[in-house]
Amino acid sequence: MRKTFRISTLEGVFAQIYSTFAAIGSSFIIKFLILLNAAPIHFSLLSAIGQVSQLFQTVGVAVTHNLSNRKKACVRITAMGRSLTFFLGAGLLFANPETGIWFTLLLMFCSSALLSIGGNIWIAWISDSVPLQFRGRFFSRRNQYLLIAGLLTGYLGSFAVDLFSPENKGIHKAFIKWTGLSNLFRPEYQGRFLTALFVGATFIGLIGLAILAKQPERRHTPHSEPLGVIYKQPFKDANFRRLLLFGAWWMLAIGIGAAFWTPFMLKKLQMSLFEVQLYGSFSTIASLLSYRFWGRFIDKYGNRTAMTICIIIGGFNPLLWLFMTAQSHYIIWFEALSSGFMWAGAGLVTTNFVLSVSPKGMAQVYSGIFGACNGLAMMLSILLAGFFFPPKLQIGNLSLEPEQVLFGLTGLIRWTALIPLTFIVEAKAKSLRDLSQLLLENILNRLKITK
């Protein structure tokens, strides 16, 4: 366990650095698409790619069906996915920027699909190595180190990219003046610098895989049943079907505004990439401080209760974006803290929920099908939001940008995910009512002791 944690965490740091720069969801890839003059539909497609790639998780089950050792398959497939991002910067070489955009999207699709297969194999590998009763704390501690790594590298990268901005000011202007490199930090070189970041991130990701190859693996007995029977088994599990319904409902709600958070900050709120990274830092710090809480909370009260709290907060956060403008968006820093706390819990629940309901030896196929169905659901709402991009909306004195209309909608629909969540059966889970009673009794007992 200790060796697994050390190697998994070290490899995870390299993987986090890679993802910060070159994986789906990276603000650096979004910045790259902005340089190529991408339209809202392109940002929708980029987010949709990240979700449709989850369908390939089920391929991971097929790849390892007859394997007693999954390490080599995981490392090799993940290496292929990470290697593709070496060519991201080639999108600048096309005479027509539109062609460069489609090249970038196609490359990200192929890379994400391979990484999804590798990720599914890794889930099966790690679930065999870490007992269920320790998984909440294992993933919470590991994620703390990963977030710190992503925070630091994101800061350095965003600061460097913003040095090439046409209008440098503040610390960036002072840095250029101090170094005397004004001829180097020219706006037309920004795309080339991003290309260098993608290349460097690729090599860092591959180094991480060399570390992952040293992680121990428990041998397991391959499934004797035909592959078709294995794929059908989760759907015969009534509780898993309820979990699938909840996951798809939640992902549909999240996908409504998922493609437009970062573009909205960069284009409508006129924030620099460094400020976007600062927003991410506030969220990261909140996550870091709350991971320990969520890990213990999940182990004690269950995933369902934790997710109930996350959904309540998760529906409130997007509504704060309705009041942000380029001239006044200070509330965004409070929203970052609230989102960081919420996503830390939701992330742990997402990883742990499937593992807690799946029978022994079936974690990989359960996880693969859950990820595929969730990805399909979120892809659908992302694409619909892009194709039916709403117009501006005036509500009294409140003037909403199209993105803000989507943010408000996603917040309201997120709350409805509480409906399917209540039907999931989890043996150790306590209801929110039971939790409230326990907290009230604890407070009253403490007051009695004080008296």
Notes on the protein architecture:
With about 450 residues, this protein is mainly α. It has a single domain, classed as MFS general substrate transporter like domains (Growth Hormone, Chain: A), CATH 1.20.1250. Helices cover about 75% and strands about 0% of the residues. The protein has 19 helices and 2 strands. It has helices at about 1-20, 25-35, 40-50, 55-65, 70-85, 95-130, 130-160, 170-180, 190-210, 225-230, 240-255, 260-270, 275-300, 305-320, 330-355, 365-385, 400-415, 420, 430-450; strands spanning about 395, 400. The protein has a two-stranded antiparallel sheet. It is globular and about 60 Å long.
Give me the CATH architecture, please: Up-down Bundle
- Give the N-to-C terminal Cα separation: 45 Å
* Helix-and-strand structural type: mainly alpha
Helix tally? 19
CATH homologous superfamily annotation: MFS general substrate transporter like domains
String of helices and strands? HHHHHHHHHHHHHHHHEEHHH
CATH fold title: Growth Hormone, Chain: A
User: How many strands, which pairing sense, and closed or not: the largest β-sheet?
Assistant: 2 strands, antiparallel
Shape: globular
- Cross-sheet strand order for the largest sheet: 1-2
Instruction: Tell me, rounded to a whole number, the average pLDDT.
Output: 83
Give start-end ranges of low-pLDDT stretches.
none
Count the domains.
1
Number of strands: 2
Helix content: over 70%
Rg calculated over all Cα atoms:
22 Å
Q: What is the CATH class designation? A: Mainly Alpha
- How large a portion of the residues is in β-strands, by DSSP E? under 5%
